[in-house]
Known about the structure:
- The relative contact order is 0.17.
- Strands 1, 2, 3, 4, 5, 6, 7, 8 and 9 form a nine-stranded antiparallel beta sheet that branches.
- The protein is globular.
- It contains eight helices and nine strands.
- The chain has a single domain, classed as Catalase HpII,  Chain A, domain 1, CATH 2.40.180.10.
- By secondary structure, it is of the alpha+beta class.
Amino acid sequence: MKLDLARKRPSLLGRLWLRLGALLGKLVLILLCVGLIGWGLASAWFAWQHRGPVAVEEQIPADETARTQDIIQTAVRIVDQHREGTRYLRDAHAKAHGCVKAEVQVLAELDPQLRQGVFATPGQTWQALVRLSNGNAYPQFDSIRDARGMAIKLLDVPGRQLLPSESGRREQDFVMFNHPNFFVSDVAEYQQNIGAQADGKKVGAFFPTWNPRSWQIRHLLIALATLSPAPASPTQTTYFSVSPYKFGNANAKFRVLPDPDSCPSYKLPTQNQDLPNFLRSALLQQLSTDRVAACFVLQIQRQDPSRFMPIEDTSIQWKESDSAFETVARMKIPAQDFDTPAQNLACDNQSFNPWFGLEAHRPIGGINRLRKAVYEAVSDYRHRRNAEP
Length: 389
């Protein structure tokens, strides 16, 4: 009997493990509580720091011009690093799935307050060119997580262009990608980020020093969310301008999202996503093989200055609860053939720039001011190197 009781009593080692387990359990619980408290305090601090009202006019830092010139040199270095043979590619969105013709029609029953710029005449139809792309600076397999881009160029747009050097263009461009906010706030952060990436230090882009106060955890999370799995097709995702623009006397951001109800019903056949260019194949399948159009709506989100909707920080997503998106036009990409060597070369040589357009849609904010200089410099450099007009 005494022997049986002894066997049931835990050994010294067993009791030690039980106590250690209990201690570890308490430690994990304490860390969890501390983490939740820290998260709550950080959320409260973020909400306190990021509240309205906000400015409606641009606020330009004194050192922005110098930072911009440094960024241009870095962007040119990236173009040199990522050239394909002897051909020089874009410093971002280098790989196109195709450039396709489209029609953008302003809503016939458009609210008078929304009748601005190219949307001034209800029912008007613009002919357009749309470039669909991956975001990376070097062409890679479509299955790799990446941002996806849509650039829209309205053609034969009358009126004075924003850039005097481009007065003959008669265009209005909208440049977007498939995430509502950007992983940098302003030009200073962009300078540090692109410099680290050009040096091959991807981690350093968000952790520039050992000082935790310099770490950009929130922006890293935005970047990871931006690098999303590929959609089934470029026609099946939503695209955002991310940065703000003038919209008449207001400030606004743009969004384009699929509108399948305005086109014939279509189910895309399953694509082989192991192929490097399956997004181009999906676009070809729908537009060229099955001859089915793709439809979208173009919307704006107007700034409410009483809410936290800043124009100088592109890392902040404007909440729909603060200002809802409003449809101003519908876009239709008709069935067409677009994948020939000549068309693909013309697509590669085409320049899209949010500064190609009218005063009514002037790009605003630091990232857009940066784009004005960088897009022009990189485009000129690329075309000179490629011996293209």
